[in-house]
Amino acid sequence: MDLKDRRISEWKRFYESFKFAWSGIFQTFKAERNFQIHVFITVLVCIGGLALHFTKFEWIVILFLVGGMLAFELMNTALERVVDLVTKEFHPLAKSAKDAAAGAVFIYAILSVIIGIIIVSNHF
Ligand SMILES: Nc1ncnc2c1ncn2[C@@H]1O[C@H](COP(=O)(O)OP(=O)(O)OP(=O)(O)O)[C@@H](O)[C@H]1O
């Protein structure tokens, strides 16, 4: 394989990885109610931000929060899938893995709501 072919296959791999990532997001959106709720909240927050004229800094914080929330939810789904793949039986470790991941999502969600309230209350 010459240099040009190798470069094309590098780009192809790069493009494929985007395709897989998008497929993961799309599959999760189709299958997970929580993810759908988070996407809906993200849209609402963005509309609210436009209506309230968030500052640049506020947008940066908000985008980190909603983006982080969606990313956390995707990781949580990934972990649930792996646990289900490993065992369909009741197992204390499966429970502890899933509950810990759910706890991570919960902590981030609570912090996001608190920070969101602080930002929005600034505009009233
Ligand atoms: N194999 C298992 N062994 C023991 N406990 C489990 C097992 N699978 C799930 N659980 C428990 O049941 C809860 C619900 O698991 P489930 O796989 O339905 O995910 P979930 O929390 O409902 O998430 P989602 O609604 O996003 O799918 C887990 O948080 C865990 O406490």
UniProtKB/TrEMBL annotation:
In the UniProt record, does the keyword Ion transport occur?
Answer: no
**Main location, first listed in the record:** membrane
The membrane spanning regions, by residue number, are 35-54, 60-79, 100-120
> InterPro entries from the entry?
DAGK, DAGK_sf, UDPK
Give the record's keywords alphabetically: ATP-binding, Cell membrane, Kinase, Lipid biosynthesis, Lipid metabolism, Membrane, Nucleotide-binding, Phospholipid biosynthesis, Phospholipid metabolism, Transferase, Transmembrane, Transmembrane helix
Which locations, inside or outside the cell, does it occupy?
Cell membrane
Q: Name one GO molecular function term.
A: kinase activity
Q: How is this protein positioned relative to the membrane? A: Multi-pass membrane protein
Q: Name one Pfam family in it.
A: DAGK_prokar
- Protein family according to the UniProt entry: Belongs to the bacterial diacylglycerol kinase family.
* PANTHER family per record: DIACYLGLYCEROL KINASE
Protein's name in the database: Diacylglycerol kinase family protein
Can you name the source organism? Metabacillus rhizolycopersici
